[in-house]
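Chain and backbone:
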Amino acid sequence: MKLSVIIPVFNEAANLNILHQGLTDVLTPDHPGYEVIFVNDGSVDESGQTLDAIADRDHHIKVVHLQRNYGQTTALMAGFDHAAGDIVVVMDGDNQNDPTDIPRLVAKLNEGYTVVSGWRKNRKDARISRIIPSMIANWLISKVTGIRLHDYGCSLKAYRREVIQDLMLYGQMHRFLPIISTWSGAKVTEIPVQHHQRQFGSSNYGISRVTPVLLDLILIKFFDRQLQHPLHLFGAFGIINLLLAMLTFILMLYYKYWGGKTFIETPLPTLAALFFLMGMLAILLGIVAELVMRTYYESQQKKPYRIKRTKN
């Protein structure tokens, strides 16, 4: 079975030759037809030139240079679109993931799994800014989605091709790939993998990722439950607000004619108008979401990135 390894790269010039040598040593004995796809995600250092030089001397290496920096999710999409392997492995380009774990991921796939996720059990990162927020996020994601993984943020993962072909990802959804995979019936597991201290360059991630992760988690939950019928969600909220508006209106009339209170002496008229407007807006938003959803399913799919050039 042919193996494809996809590595998004953003300003990792000092790490690339070391990573290439490690991949060559690990993959050559057991996967002679392997390919490694480096996706240069708009790097502004020497990463592009370094990758082209590596590709010049090694036909196993493919390089996709994106027009600008799109982010890790879009870079992965570009890699998936150019991968030819029956098994696709994803890893980071900073040498914190270890290429020697790739055979272990593939072996686990061969036990009947569709997705194997890495678990950085002994993570070598800053505890306050990265490890603790990651632990909280992993716990929250598991609780909300019902899928129990220790480390959603680990980039080192292995997929069977049928999981990622025709997959469309947006925003920062790459960390939720195991969850998205289960929607199509994938069998997901995880294994502990090595994690090394970063030797060169600086991390592009930090505690600022917490807010995007939380927002993406809300979105992924919506996709899981309400994507095909968004009007059910927005409409239910709208109907609740309309019922509250009706109840408030009745109370307003009661106080006016039997409670000895004029309209201006209570906040009820304002509340009635507010609940009514919120209810109508929610229902209208649900209708718009239904139209967007149908466009999403029925329109022609377009790629969320532009390629500047390719190598090999």
